[in-house]
Amino acid sequence: MNGHVVTGNSDLIRKWNRSLVLDLIRRQGPISRADVKRITGLNFTTVTNAVGDLVEEGLVQEVGLGTSSGGRKPVLLTLNPTARYVIGCELQSTLLIVGIFDLTGRLIIQTEEPKDPGTSPADVVAATSRAIDALLAEANIPKEKVEGLGVAAPGPLNSRTGVLLTPPNMIGWRDVPLREMLEKATGLPVTIEKDGNAAALGEVWFGAGQGVLDLIFIIVDAGIGGGIITGGHLYRGRHGGAGEIGHTTIDVDGPRCSCGNYGCLEAIASGFALSRRAGEEIRRGVDSVLAQHGAGDTAIDVHHLLEAASQGDKLAADLLDISGRALGIAVANIVNMYNPELIVLGGRLAQHSDAVLERALELGRNRAFSVLSQDVRIVPSALGDQFLLAGAAALVLAGLFRGPVDLSPAEL
User: Fold this and answer.
1) Per residue in 236-246, pLDDT tens?
2) What is the DSSP string of 229-298?
3) Catalytic residue IDs
4) Domain boundaries, the chain
5) Which residue of 51, 168, 269, 402 is surrounded by the most CB atoms within 10 Å?
6) Structure pTM?
7) Is 218's pLDDT higher than 80?
8) How far is it, in rounded angstroms, from Cα 7 to Cα 5?
9) Residues 226-242: what's their mean pLDDT?
10) Which helix (H) or strand (E) holds 97?
11) Rounded to an integer, what distance in angstroms lies between the CA atom of residue 181 and that of residue 75?
C-alpha cells in the first residue's frame, strides 16, 4: 500500500477503494472478504460493494471455501488473470517490440521488427497499430478485453501529455504527440513513460526489485538511460527529466554526444558510441573481425560487438572494457548521490557481456564512498531482454491496481 489518504468526490473514492481491493486480491489471493476488510482497513460495506463490482466485471472470481474460524466457511476470492489484457510497446531508435500480457504480467505473445532511427512518427504509429491487430487476432483476444497500451519510449518526454520532446537518437522526432497519435490509430487508452522509468517500474512489479522502495535502473544498450524509484515513488523531476544518467559527464574532454554536450556517459559507453569508435579504429587500420560489417559509424551494432568479443577479437574486447569502466564510474557516482538499496543494470551491454558487467560492478563498488557501497546491491535485470516490454505493460497495470510504485507525483 502507498499509504495515501484519498479525499474528493465519491466516484474517485469508490475507484480508489476498488483498485485497493483488486490489488490485494492480486497479491494475496485466494483470500476471503473478511481478510480483505482486515488488511485494507475498509469497512465491510465498502469491501462487499467493491468485491461485488469486481466479480460482476469478471476481474475477480470465487474459487472455493476457506478454513472456518468457528462459523460458516469463508468464500475465497482470486484474480481472474484473463479477464483483461494489457499491451506493452517498447520503442527504441532501431527496434519496435509489441507484446500482450495477462493481468498477472505473463507474456502471451509478442512481435518485433527492426526500424531505422529516421523512421517517421506516422510510420511508427502505423506499424504499432498493425502489430497490435495481428497479435490480437493470432491470440484470439477481442480488443474489448484490452485494458490499454503502455509505451516505453526514449526521453526526454512529457508523461502527462504523452509528447516526445527531443529523443536524441531518433531523427526528425521533436514535440511528437505520440499518445494522441496512438490513441487515434488503435482506439486504446495509451500511457507513455520514459524507457528508464518504465524499466524501473517493471523491475519492481515483476523482477529483482520486488519489495524494494529505493531503486535505480540503468539501461546500457544502443543508448544509455535510467529510472529512479525513491520511497516507493517514481521520481520524474521538475520537468520529467530525472534519470538521464546517459547524459551525465564522465570526461570533460570526451567525444561529442548526440545531445550536443561533450564527454557524456552515452558518448563513451553506449552501443552507438562503441560502434563509432570501432569504425574509427578500423579506418585507422586496426585488424578486427568487425571490419566485415564496414567502417561507417552505424555499420557495427551491439550484437556485432558482443559476437566479436566472444570470438576473442581484441578490438571488441577493448571497447567493451571501455564501456564497463565508464559505467562503473557512473554507478559509483549514483551510489554516492542516491544511496539506493538496489541498482539494476539492463540492456544488452550489461546483460550479455560479462566484461562490461564485471568491470561495472568492480569500479562501482571500489570508487563509491565505502560506507554506502557496502550495503547496495548491484544486479542485472531479472527480466532478461523483456525488461522494457514488461515495464511498458506495468504502466497499464499500475492504472488498474494500486501496485508497489506511485506513478502520480505532485507535478501531475
Assistant:
1) 988 788 999 99
2) EETTEE---TTS-TT-GGGSBS-TT-PBPTTS-BSBHHHHHSHHHHHHHHHHHHHTT---GGGGG-SSTT
3) 195
4) 10-79, 85-202+388-400, 212-382
5) 269
6) 0.89
7) yes
8) 7
9) 90
10) strand 95-102
11) 45
Which residue is associated with the grid cell 566472444? 310
CA distance 127 to 141: 19
For cell 476488510, the residue is 37
Alpha-carbon distance 150 to 389, whole Å? 9
Q: 7 to each of 10, 42, 262, 290, 401, how far by Cα in Å?
A: 9, 14, 48, 61, 18
How high is the pLDDT of residue 297?
77
pLDDT given at position 229: 95
260 Cβ contact partners less than 8 Å away, ≥ 6 residues apart: none
H or E element in which residue 125 lies: helix 121-139
The answer to whether 373 touches 361, Cβ cutoff 8 Å, is no
Homologous superfamily (CATH) for 85-202+388-400? ATPase, nucleotide binding domain (3.30.420.40)
Q: Give the fold, CATH level 3, of 212-382.
A: Nucleotidyltransferase; domain 5 (3.30.420)
